Amino acid sequence: MKWNLRMVAAQRDLWRPTEVLAAFQQVGFNPSLSKVAALWGGTPVTVRLDDLDLMCAALDCTVADLLQAEPLAGAQPAGAAGDVAVGAEVQPPGPVRPVPRGPRRGGPRSLPPN
Q1: Which of 78, 76, 47, 52 is nearest to 63 (CA)?
Q2: Residue 67 and residue 1: Cα distance in Å, rounded?
Q3: Helices 17-26 and 49-59 meet at what angle, rounded to 10?
Q4: Rounded CA gap, 35 and 50, in Å?
Q5: φ, ψ for residue 103 (rounded to 5)?
Q6: Vertex 58, ends 48 and 47: CA angle to 5°?
Q7: Contacts of 66 by beta carbon, 8 Å cutoff, 6+ apart
């Protein structure tokens, strides 16, 4: 999940991470400025559920407003034409699953350091 804090804060007329930090402190949530800046930039950051409730109270929003789902890896937009493997004319329903990497080229794996 990606954070959508910048857009939610802009709707409340907060344009800088320091302004968001002040809004958080008004409801009793005291994160570091670096954590607020990471949230502002959309970086994945760990937040407790209690703190998420306080963030929503400070910004007058819902959890769904703050979190933005990331697209599935390898998913194509609807209607996008791509190469189709032989025998795979019908795509199975559901999300696209990740495919593991093949074996490494160049010989056996290296040993771990001592």
Answers
A1: 52
A2: 6
A3: 110
A4: 16
A5: -65, 155
A6: 15
A7: 3, 4, 5, 8, 52, 55, 56, 59
Residue position matching structure tokens 């809004």: 23
Find the DSSP H helices in 1-114: 5-11, 17-26, 33-41, 49-59, 63-66
Q: Residue 80: what residue type? A: A
84: confidence class by pLDDT, cuts 50, 70, 90? low
In this structure, the number of other CB atoms found within 10 A of the CB of residue 54 comes to 19
Pick from 42-51, 78-87, 92-101 the range whose average pLDDT is largest. 42-51
**Token pair listed for 37:** 């800046």
Residue type, 55: M
Tokens of 32: 């570091």
In single-letter form, the type of residue at position 44 comes to P
Nearest by Cα to 37 from 9, 64, 18, 57: 18
